[in-house]
């Protein structure tokens, strides 16, 4: 009882202060600010609406600038602000010079007692501040029957949910899926029974140019360029060995373009070619390595010999146009 009396005395004191401020609030511009609760009494944890509004007239046609109070997460430590609406401006239909701005707050409290909500201050026009009336919010706890035993929380009810229930809950998606399947079926039938059967295409196999013919053409071209005669020894031997390496790949399926001289010669240990061809291949590759990496300066006869050995190596290992190996050379190589 003493607690309630104390809260009521605080409320009366705030009310008297607001009465003293009435002459100050009234101004020539007829500005009025109000604060109103949906309910002055709630149970702990419940929410209540707090309506803030300010009304003013504009007789001279000039709009009055209104600054609303800044509202934080709490009005006071016992009263929390849950949400705030936007500020709406309403023009009176009967009086176009009468404006009203409103905002709604959702507030709650988790502490029981009588909580005074202080006035809200608006800054409007040339006034020093327009204040709302203070409010009193009573927060009460739920009545607990202490004579009854404490009971456990009830378990949640189990509700069966089948695929039929899912279809009922998602009928829109089901109809969309059925419609899509129907469109696909119609499209399939149209394509199936309207497309023309094309006659089978006959692929004409173009005869493959033998590897040795390609190599001979490139050797002939390189020979006419006179590279080593012009002092371009490194370029000459590089192009010469590239032709030989490309021929080896096309003829023997050995990745010669990606291998070193030693790797190429090692790979030919199981290839059925005569020893003379192997010797000439080795001579061409080794001389080229000396020119490219050791800056060797071969004699003109050595440069000519590399070209001759390249021709002889290709002649000694080539396939005929029908793709058959020269059996006599294979037998000679095996020996």
Name of the CATH superfamily of the largest domain: Immunoglobulins
**Biggest sheet statistics:** 6 strands, antiparallel
Q: What is the mean predicted local confidence, pLDDT?
A: 82
Strand content: 15-25%
CATH classification, class level of the largest domain: Mainly Beta
Question: What name does CATH use for the topology of the largest domain?
Answer: Immunoglobulin-like
Number of helical stretches of at least 4 residues: 10
> Kindly, what is the distance between the CA atoms of the first and last residues, rounded to a whole number of angstroms?
125 Å
Alpha-carbon Rg, integer: 51 Å
Can you put this structure into words, describing what you see?
The chain is an alpha+beta fold and 335 residues long. The protein folds into 3 domains: 2-140, Immunoglobulin-like (Sandwich); 163-194; 211-334, no CATH class. The protein is built from 10 helices and 12 strands. Strands 1, 3, 5, 6, 7 and 8 form a 6-stranded antiparallel β-sheet that branches. A 3-stranded mixed β-sheet has the order 2-12-9, covered by helices on one side. Strands 4-10-11 form a 3-stranded antiparallel β-sheet, with no helix packed on it. Strand 10 (121-124) and strand 11 (130-131) form a beta hairpin. The protein is elongated, with a radius of gyration of 51 Å.
């Amino acid at each position: 009882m003493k607690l309630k009396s104390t809260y009521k005395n605080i409320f009366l004191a705030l009310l008297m202060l607001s009465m003293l401020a009435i002459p100050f609030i009234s101004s020539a511009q007829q500005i009025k600010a109000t604060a109103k609760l949906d309910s002055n009494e709630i149970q702990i944890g419940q929410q209540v609406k707090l309506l803030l509004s300010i009304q003013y007239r504009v007789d001279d046609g000039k709009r009055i600038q209104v600054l609303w109070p800044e509202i934080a997460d709490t009005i006071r430590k016992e009263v929390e602000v849950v949400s705030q609406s936007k500020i709406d401006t309403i023009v009176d239909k009967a009086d176009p010079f009468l404006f009203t701005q409103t905002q709604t707050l959702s507030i709650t409290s988790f502490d029981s007692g009588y909580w005074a909500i202080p006035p809200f201050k608006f800054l409007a026009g040339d006034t020093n501040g327009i204040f709302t009336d203070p409010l009193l919010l009573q927060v009460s706890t739920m009545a607990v029957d202490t004579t009854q035993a404490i009971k456990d929380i009830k378990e949640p009810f189990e509700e069966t949910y089948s695929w039929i229930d899912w279809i009922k809950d998602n009928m829109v998606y089901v109809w969309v899926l059925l419609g899509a399947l129907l469109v696909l079926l119609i499209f399939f039938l149209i394509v199936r029974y309207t497309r023309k059967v094309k006659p089978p295409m006959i692929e004409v196999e173009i005869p493959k140019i033998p590897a040795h013919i390609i190599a001979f053409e490139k050797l002939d071209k390189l020979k006419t360029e006179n590279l080593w005669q012009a002092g371009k020894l490194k370029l000459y031997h590089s192009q010469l060995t590239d032709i030989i390496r490309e021929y080896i790949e096309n003829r023997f399926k050995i990745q010669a373009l990606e291998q070193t001289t030693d790797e190429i010669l090692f790979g030919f240990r199981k290839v059925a070619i005569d020893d003379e061809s192997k010797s000439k291949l080795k001579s061409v590759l080794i001389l080229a390595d000396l020119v490219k990496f050791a800056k060797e300066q071969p004699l003109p006869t050595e440069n000519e010999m590399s070209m001759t050995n390249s021709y002889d190596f290709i002649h000694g290992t080539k396939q005929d146009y029908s793709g058959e190996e020269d059996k006599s050379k294979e037998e000679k190589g095996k020996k």
